[in-house]
Amino acid sequence: MMQTTFKVHRFDPEQPEHARLATYVVELPESASIVDGLTYICDEQDPSLAFRANCERGSCGDCALRVNKKGVLGCTTKIVDVVGKDGIVTVEPIRHVPVLKDLVYDMETFLWRKVRAVTPWITPQAAGPNGASTVSEQKIAEVRTAMSCVMCGLCDEGCTVVAVDDQFVGPAALTKAYRAIFDPRDTRHVERLQSISEPDGVWDCTHCFEANGHCPIGIEPTDRIFEIRDEAIRLGIRSGKQNPKVRRHYDSFVNSVKKSGWLDEGRLAIESEGLFNVRGLLKLLPTAARAIVRNKAPIPYMHHKRPGAKAIRQIIEKAEGKRS
Amino acid sequence: MKYAFYPGCVSRGGCPELYPAAVKVAEKLDLELQELTDVGCTGAGVLSRDLSDPINARTFAKAERNGLSTLMTICSTCQGVMMQANHRLQSDTAYRVHINKTYLADEGLEYSGALEVKHLLWVLMEDYGADKLKAKLTRPLSGLKVAPFYGCYLRRPSDLMAPKGFAGRKTYLEDLISLVGAEVVDFGGKSKCCGFPILTANEDNSMRMVSDHTGEAKDKGAHCMVTPCPLCHLNLDGNQPNAEKKAKKPIGLPILHLPQLVGLALGFDEREMELQRHIVPPDAAIRNVKVNMLS
Ligand code: SF4
Ligand code: FES
Description:
The complex is a heterodimer. Chain A is of the alpha+beta class. Chain A has helices spanning 34-45, 79-82, 107-117, 137-147, 154-158, 170-181, 189-195, 210-214, 221-234, 244-260, 265-273, 278-293, 309-322; strands at residues 2-10, 20-28, 64-67, 70-73, 88-92, 99-101, 104-105. Classes of the chains: A alpha+beta, B alpha/beta. Bound molecules: iron/sulfur cluster and FE2/S2 (inorganic) cluster (FES).
C-alpha cells in the first residue's frame, strides 16, 4: 500500500468563484491508477466529487485528465509513475474545454460537434452479393492505426491552434476524417476532402506535431493530417472555396521552386494575396514598408535561379506527373 | 570540423541578416562550411512530400558526392523537414531505391542514406562542445535576459528530434543562453508554434500566437528572445507590430537569430551581426549588455 496526496480541481458551476484544488490523502496499492484514486476519494471521502471514467482499460477515452499538468488517460496512468517526490499528484480537467463540474467537461463543445462536422461514418456502395461490404486486408491496413483512436481528445487538448481558436476542427476530428477518407469502401472521398478544406479545417493546422506528442496511444494524428493534406493536393483540392488564399499560396510556392529551385518570398506574399486582389495587396503594404526601411524586403520576381534549378524543376514535374 | 552547409531560402530572403551572422560565427569557431549552392528548397512543410522528398534526397546526394557526412542547417524548419525526409529515406530502403532510380539517376546521383542532418544549435552543443565554445567567448552577455524560442521542428516529433541518448536537445537553447553568460527567461510558449505556417490560412490565429508568446516572454522580464528558426523570426519579429495591433497590447520584444546571440558573445558588434535589420529594434537589449560590459 502507498499513501498519496491528491490535489483535485473542484468546481461548482453555481459558485464558480470558489474553484480550488482540494486535498485528499489516499491509501492504495502500488498498482492503483489515477481513476482508482478518484474512485476511492468518491467512495470513502467525498461523494460529491465528479469525474468521468467508463471502460477503465484505456479504450473509451472518457477519463482524459491533466495530471501534474500533463494530459493523460486517468485509467491507464498509475499513481506510482506520476507522483512527485513530495507524494503529491495534481489532478485537473484538460485545457481548452468548458468545465461543467470538478473534472467533468462539456464533450459536445469540445469534441462531438467537431466530430459530427466531419461525418465520421462511411458511405459505401451497394453491398456485395453476400450482403457484405468487404475490403481487403491490405487496403484497410492504412486506416487501422486511426481506427484505434479512442476519442479522448488529448490531441486537441495539446493542440496549438485549439488553444487560441476553439472553432478549429482539431486533430481528433481530423483523425476521424482520415479514417473515413482512406476507407476503401467510402464513396465520398473527394467531397470529404473538399469539406475539410474549408476554413477551420485541415489547412488551419500548423503541423507543429504537438498532437503526436499528446496522443496516449501512438496514433500520430499530425502524420494523419499530413496524409490528408497530401491527398488533397494530389487531387488538386489545395483549399476550400472560402479560403482561396491557401490554394494561391501553395501554387505560388510550387511555381517559384519550379522556376528558380528555391523560394521567392516576395512573390509568394503577393501571389498568396492574389495579383488582382487590391485590398489584400494594400494590406501587405505596412509590413512591406517596414521591411523595406530595414533593407530586408525580398524583391519579388527578381529571384536568381539556383544552379540546380533545371534539375529541381524536372523532379517536380516528374512527381506531379506520377500522381494518378 | 567540415559540414555541408544548407542555409535555406529565408536566410537569403526575408531574413538576410541570418546568413552573414551564421557564416561569421562559423568562421570564428573554425567550423568549415562547404555551402551547397545547387540544391533546392526543402519544401518547408508546404510542398507535399511526394515533391519534397526527392528534392531533399537530391540535396543529401549532393552533400555525399562532396564527400561530407553531415549537413548543417540554420533553420528549425529546414532541419525538421529534412530530418523527416531523411528518416523516410533511411528507414525504408525500397523507398530510397525508388527515389534514387526515379529522380536522381538522371543526374548520376544516388543517396546512400548515410547522411546526418544537424542544426547549428546541435553542432555547437554536440560536435563543438560547450567547453570549447566557452573558451572562445570574449564578451559574456551578462545582464541580458533572453527567452528561448525553439520552433516546432527542432523539438517535434520528439522521438525523431531527440531520440534516446539525445534527450539534452530539449534544453540546448536554454543551455546555450546560459553558456554565453545571459539569463534564461523560461516561459510556456518556448516550444509552441510561432503561428507562421498558418499565416495565410488563418491570420488571426497566427497573430494570436505571436502576441501570446512574445507578450508572455516580455511579461516575464525578457529583454529579447532568441530563435534557431528564421520562419519563427519572420512571424515573431516581422509581424509583431501587426500582432500588437490585433491584441491591442504594446510588446516590443526584439527577436535575435541564434547565430546573432552567439556572435555578440564572440565579440562581434551589433552592426556586424546586422541587428539593425530587425523590425523590432534590439537597442534596449544591446544597451543592457553594453552597460554590463562596462561595469
Ligand atoms: S488521436 Fe489519440 S489523442 Fe487524439 S482523440 Fe484519438 S486517441 Fe485521443
Ligand atoms: S476509462 Fe476508458 S479510457 Fe479511461
